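Example record

The entry below shows one chain as it appears in the dataset: sequence first, then structure tokens.
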Amino acid sequence: MIIAQISDSHIDPESNKLEDRLRDLRLVVEDINKQKPSPDIVIHTGDMVHNGTQEKYNLTHSILKDLRVPLYVCTGNRDDKNLLATNFQTGRNSSPTSVFLQYSVDDYPVRLIALDTTCVTSNMGDYCRERAEELNNILTEKPKKPTVLFMHHPPYEIIDSKYPFQFDNWDTVNHLARVIKKHEQIKYLFCGHTHRNSKGKILGVPASTSPSIAIDLRLGDFPEGAEFMPIYHIHKFDGIGFNKKTVICRIL
């Protein structure tokens, strides 16, 4: 199974970088559509727009609709989770009464579970007992199927970041860790938020972040040749784990 990961496009009509960010997003969509073999799905790991409104999601959807494979999304701190779920495809909700955007996608060789790590008081991450219980219930349904989690905030320390800890209260990561410890089928955690390449682990499970699609917001190191071009990740499952490749968009 092949997953393309994009993140942090921050589309915002109020920004003087709007046209650049729209260009970056278009280039990524065009590049993903040219991939051989084609990804099975695309995941967007949050902050699709900058401070979510219907106008901004309409603008973003006008580009993302051209993807030739299914797109699944998780909520970032700049998103409106209700508008995100209304405008883009999600899977089976963790609970019909949940206030969190957490869901599973069961139609592929690898199961996908979207997590909601948003915090109501800050832009940093949060993960409460209620969310952890929802995740535990989803994972218990299919204990033998290889599974990945995708979320906005990375639950590991990023040493070279201005904010090494990406959660408002780092103790809340323990709620997520306790669930991960009980479920050996989890193979990888895909994250965003940091606008940079990074990798880490939580209880031995590999995790990584994808750089922001928006070049003007990108941080950290990036591959040679990517100074003026957006980048994204391709993750290929080999039956045991995932191999990650950073893709530089090209203009042909």
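Notes for this example: The CA atoms of residues 91 and 131 lie 16 Å apart. The radius of gyration is 17 Å.
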